[in-house]
């Protein structure tokens, strides 16, 4: 009997919803409008759909799937639920450490520390926050491109460092191509080699 796990990281009322892993039935994933994605720092692929969990369950019920009740197990094994929550927290911390170990992460902090205009805009000392792992639009690692959105807070203002990096292939390290400081919907260019513009141009050519 096949099994399927669905979960959500944000809101159960709205989604998005995680509906499968790399070995899931691709035809079923298509019927759920799910696309494969890889969260920053993870080595596995999971399928995500913009549908809310309720909509996913409605589709699955029409296809003959049945919901397996798990609340009783949670009530009986409350300690196990706590252990699971702790494990999730530790996993998140582990991923954050991997993110901080990325070459363009460390390079971006070095560049911003030498940029007087950015430092004055934020107000030293500047504190660095954790990236939002659920925000896959702004935080991802691809084959040849990567983007990070790093929260930064100073004594004057706060915002994000948007760090774009490129590499020639998967065996090469990422090199910082562009850094933007975003504060109050205003983006200021801090560093730009021009290589990220080349990536955008290539994407435009491929889509045309």
Automatic annotation (TrEMBL):
Where in or outside the cell? Answer: Cytoplasm, Cytosol; Endomembrane system; Nucleus envelope
Report the domain of life of the source organism: Eukaryota
InterPro entries, per the entry:
Coa1 (IPR014807), GFRP_sf (IPR036717), GTP_CycHdrlase_I_reg (IPR009112)
This protein's GO CC annotations: cytosol; mitochondrial inner membrane; nuclear envelope
Q: Give the principal location in a single coarse category.
A: cytoplasm
- Gene Ontology terms: biological process: mitochondrial respiratory chain complex I assembly; mitochondrial respiratory chain complex IV assembly; negative regulation of biosynthetic process
**Keyword terms, alphabetized:** Cytoplasm, Membrane, Nucleus
What PANTHER family has UniProt attached to this entry? CYTOCHROME C OXIDASE ASSEMBLY FACTOR 1 HOMOLOG (PTHR47148)
Q: Family, per the entry?
A: Belongs to the GFRP family.
Q: What is the name attached to this protein's record?
A: GTP cyclohydrolase 1 feedback regulatory protein
What species is given as this protein's source? Nippostrongylus brasiliensis (Rat hookworm)
């Amino acid at each position: 009997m096949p099994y399927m796990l669905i979960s959500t990281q944000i809101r159960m009322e709205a989604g998005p919803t995680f509906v499968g892993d790399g070995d899931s039935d691709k035809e079923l994933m298509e019927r759920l409008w799910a696309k494969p994605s890889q969260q920053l720092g993870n080595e596995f692929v999971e399928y995500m759909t913009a549908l809310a969990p309720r909509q996913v369950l409605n589709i699955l019920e029409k296809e003959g799937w049945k919901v397996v009740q798990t609340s009783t197990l949670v009530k009986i094994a409350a300690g196990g639920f706590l252990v699971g929550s702790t494990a999730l927290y530790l996993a998140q911390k582990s991923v954050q450490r991997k993110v901080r170990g990325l070459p363009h992460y460390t390079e971006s902090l070095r560049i911003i520390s030498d940029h007087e205009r950015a430092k004055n805009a934020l107000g030293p000392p500047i504190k660095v926050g954790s990236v939002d792992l659920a925000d896959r639009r702004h935080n991802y690692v691809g084959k040849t491109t990567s983007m990070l959105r790093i929260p930064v807070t100073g004594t004057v203002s706060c915002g994000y460092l948007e760090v774009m990096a490129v590499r020639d292939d998967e065996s090469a390290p990422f090199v910082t191509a562009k850094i933007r400081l975003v504060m109050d919907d205003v983006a200021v260019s801090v560093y730009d080699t021009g290589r990220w513009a080349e990536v955008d141009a290539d994407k435009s050519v491929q889509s045309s």
